[in-house]
Design goal:
Order of helices and strands: EHHEEEHEEEHEHEHEHEEEHEEHE
Strand content: 15-25%
Low-confidence stretches: 1-38, 141-154
Number of helices: 9
Structural class: alpha/beta
Number of strands: 16
Distance between the termini: 27 Å
Radius of gyration: 22 Å
Strand order of the largest sheet: 10-9-8-11-14-16-15
Mean pLDDT: 85
């Protein structure tokens, strides 16, 4: 499973959000008598910043949309905290827009923050020309200690989107992430091109997008492994959506860490390992810390990999350091420069490695 390592505390469809929190002129009249000049100054400053945000969003949307059309892409990142005062990630998934606010110390009280978000959403709706019912907002909060994000609302909005000729189910309302990590678009295509005639193992599989690409690339067999029954069923639905429903495509609900401890002969030609940075799920017998645990995980995976096989390992841990000397392979290559797509200006969104077995 990819990068989802924080707690979603707000999830509202824009139309409902604006109805409750739309900024009124009166909101600026909360200061004591004699503060009118100060209030007007603050209002002007806010309007100037919102115009700056609108201008930037308009510019990047024009550029990225043109880039995406040439590549026949309908799902891509438009804006990623380009302006520090507007720390938002804005993604287009075909006809909908998904917005996540990054955690920060903004110094606003709850009402002021709500008003600010409402203004930002108005700008997004106008600039991107998207109906308010198709804009989804999520507010992210950093983990504290062992606290992990939880799903807090269930609205049930599902859409089918296309990527490189394949179809995927996304759900922008019920979970922290939509079900399709856009930063791995290039990685998925690479797996597709590597899969012809291969037996492909997909670990920490999330909604199975790598398995879909492997099957599309002609994999002779796929095994999709994830601990979550919800995500594993989602993966099954994604495979069936693309008519990859034969017996050669299997699904296994398991704690990957525990499953890897069971001895098994090497049998896989291509293995995708895309774990979370951290997980303390109650269903796991141990806590996963990818910086601490990656050597053990990768060496166990290599034991199950056929000679001449390849492991594709990815992490979104921003400060991750691969302990290359401890991995039982002399064929390790950092390919992050090619796997992070052009629409992601943050080139540290993930790190990706190819690890070979002789």
């Amino acid at each position: 499973m990819g990068n989802s390592r924080s707690k979603a505390v707000i999830l509202l469809v824009l139309s409902e959000y604006l109805e409750k929190h739309l900024l009124k002129e009166a909101n600026f009249l909360i200061f004591a008598a004699g503060s009118h000049r100060f209030t007007n100054s603050r209002k002007m400053e806010t309007e100037e910043k919102l115009q700056m945000f609108a201008n930037r969003l308009r510019k990047v949307n024009r550029h990225i949309s043109k880039w995406a059309r040439k590549r026949e892409l309908s799902c891509f990142r438009i804006y990623d905290s380009d302006i520090p005062e507007f720390p938002l990630a804005i993604d287009r998934y075909d006809q909908i827009v998904h917005i996540a606010e990054y955690s920060r110390e903004h110094g606003m009280d709850e009402q002021a923050h709500s008003d600010w978000l409402a203004q930002c959403l108005e700008v997004v709706a106008e600039v991107l020309d998207v109906h308010t019912s198709r804009i989804y907002l999520k507010y992210r909060q950093r983990q504290k200690g062992l606290q992990q994000y939880e799903r807090f609302a269930r609205i049930g909005a599902e859409y089918i989107v296309r990527e490189n000729g394949l179809k995927f189910i996304i759900n922008p309302s019920d979970y922290l992430d939509t079900g399709l990590f856009l930063d791995h678009r290039n990685t998925r295509q690479m797996v597709r091109e590597m899969s012809q005639g291969k037996r492909v193992l997909n670990l920490f599989a999330y909604t199975g997008s790598f398995s879909v690409y492997a099957a599309a690339g002609g994999a002779s067999e796929t095994l999709t492994v994830d601990m979550s029954a919800t995500y594993l069923n989602w993966a099954l639905r994604n495979m069936e959506l693309n008519q990859f429903d034969g017996d050669e495509h299997r699904f296994l609900q398991a704690d990957v860490l525990q499953w890897l401890e069971v001895p098994e002969d090497a049998q896989w030609d291509l293995v995708v390992v895309d774990p979370p940075t951290f997980s303390n799920s109650k269903r796991m017998k141990s806590i996963l810390d990818i910086q601490r645990d990656h050597v053990h995980i990768l060496n166990r995976v290599l034991e199950r990999t056929n000679p001449g096989g390849t492991v594709v390992f990815s992490t979104n841990h921003r400060k991750f350091k691969l302990q290359e000397e401890a991995i039982l392979s002399d064929q390790t290559k950092n390919i992050s420069a090619t796997t992070v797509p052009e629409d992601f200006r943050n080139k540290r969104i993930h790190q990706c490695f190819l690890i070979g077995k002789k």
